[in-house]
What does this fold into?
Amino acid sequence: MWVFGYGSLIWRPDFPFVEREHGTIRGWKRRFWQASTDHRGVPGAPGRVATLVRDLTSETFGVAYRIDEPEIHGVLADLDYREKNGYERFEVDVVRDERVVAPNALVYVATPDNEHFLGPADVGEMAAQIAGAVGPSGANRDYLLELHDALRGYGVDDPHISELSELVRQLSST
Ligand code: BEZ
It folds into this structure.
């Protein structure tokens, strides 16, 4: 079984896996539209973390991990717990060089009907929120910049992430 990560799972998978493949999924775009009150923010001062939004014209880069049979139960339980704040599971095919490298991968998406879904906002407002938020897992800023670095490590430019990262860096240096 494969699990596809598009957020922190790209650079910090926290479960055992037997194989890893990077690639893109079609029909989804990555956006910092989900509030985090338990990892990268707190109630009253939520951070923003990545989710996927349906968009038939987009594709999103990420990393898929193949999990061995004996581990599946524990890994899914951990992911379900970790993402209890409104995430739903979908299945995607992960493609690289026009070849499916991870078929029917499970992906966790915070959908627009969940109570922590913030949706779009002015990019400057989103950057300011991210620059200021801190939660039990650390600074919201670090989550964004680590995602940006990880994507660049794969040679991927995600314009939404690059724009937010640039603005957050500017805010932090003033
Ligand atoms: C991720 O890091 O890609 C991720 C992990 C759990 C739920 C949603 C996304």
Q: What stands out?
A: The first strand starts at residue 2 and ends at 5. The mean pLDDT is 94. The first helix runs from residue 69 to 82.
